[in-house]
Amino acid sequence: LDVARFYQRLGAIHSAFAKHRENNTWSGTDCLVLNRGQLYEDDPYLKSACFHTYLFGYELTDTILVLTPDGKCIVLATKKKCEFLSPAKENIPEGSSITG
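The chain above was modelled as a monomer; its predicted structure follows.
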């Protein structure tokens, strides 16, 4: 996991979400949830798969990511995937809009 790239990209998504969540784009959404379910080889271009590749550099199947307006990022995943993501939790950049 490229931690710097992860926070840069997640920060950009969070910034757009926080800035525009009250307009028609987000319709006052309370949080952004991305569910990446099982791997479907029939459709490799699922938005959730592309989003995971963009953020993590990999597809993390059976993983849910929740991003709140205040910058809290919650990941629901297996123990192995959480271990893969642990460097990001331990190395939140100073001044990041993402709080953990």
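Residues 3-20 form the longest helix (18 residues).
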